[in-house]
Write a structure and sequence with these properties.
The structure is a single chain. With about 325 residues, the protein is an alpha/beta fold. The chain has helices spanning about 30-45, 60, 75-80, 100-110, 135-145, 165-170, 175-185, 200-205, 290-310, 310-324, and strands at about 1-5, 15-20, 50-55, 85-90, 120, 150, 155, 160, 185-190, 210, 225-230, 235-245, 255-260, 270-280. The strands form three sheets. A six-stranded parallel beta sheet has the order 1-4-3-2-5-6, with helices on both faces. α6 (about 165-170) runs antiparallel to α7. It is elongated, with a radius of gyration of 22 Å. The relative contact order is 0.12.
Length: about 325
Amino acid sequence: MKIFRNMGMGDQVFPCPCVTIGNFDGVHIGHQQLFSTVVEKARRNKGTSIAITFDPHPLQVLLPGGIKLISNCEQKAELIEAAGIDVLVVIPFTKEFAKTSADVFVTDFLISTLRIKELVVGYDYAFGKGRGGNIDFLKKQGQQYGFPVTVVDAFYANDQLVSSTRIRELVKEGKMAAARELLGRNYQIRGTVQVGKQRGGKLIGFPTANLKFNKEDLVPHHGVYVAQVIYGGRCYGGILNIGYNPTFGEELLVAETHIFDFNEDIYGKPIRVNLLKFLRGEVKFKGAADLAEQIAKDVVVAKQVLQEQALELSLACSEELDKD
């Protein structure tokens, strides 16, 4: 997949472009319906499937306090590529760009630059200043400039509307199985392993790989989770604690992962952690001994969950390693 990080295509010409536009946060199963439609139409016409998205998310720029993201731009690009899209255009979103009218965006970019032949959008999509680029507007533009507009209907899973908003709610509540149904995969956090207080191994007997959250990250419900850890071309089981470590009076929010059957120095190395199941909320224990005793119990339960989901996790692991 080719990735362009701005609206400048140079002298690049794409044969018969079929285009979709959206924020695509999480690239959930509803978004995947859009991409499937775009890819199918492009292939039918021996053309190019193109997805246009924005970074940062427009609501991070326009909404006081921003918005918490299900997936960062890197992960979003990976998932869009996995959906079979040929070209991804990531438009830098600024307050100045937000003033661009929908008709200017269509004429100057979609028509003049991309030379669009077909457009596919979600049922509720709108863009441009004042969200003027709604479905009715796009259909009229399509009629005027000769590109058909296909609107993909809302997508439901188990009678539940699939949306990024709903997935955020589920993740914040720690309902990982329900979030997985809408995402089409496990919810994942990722980052570079940080040097922490190093209590996990020396004091408690359970060493951890620590990740810090960025201000735009969607933080799951605080507590302990069964986890699948992807590192170095392999997948491992583990348990993950998200919170402030109240037993030791910490003030920094971190994700601490104890990886099963693992003994490597991975400080400064990137890891990915899939959250499989919420086990319990964060608790302040009397001391390290009580905490270690509870972690040992958590490990037993986590290994049982991992065994029960062994086949599913093996498939998920294969998909993750294909991204490497």
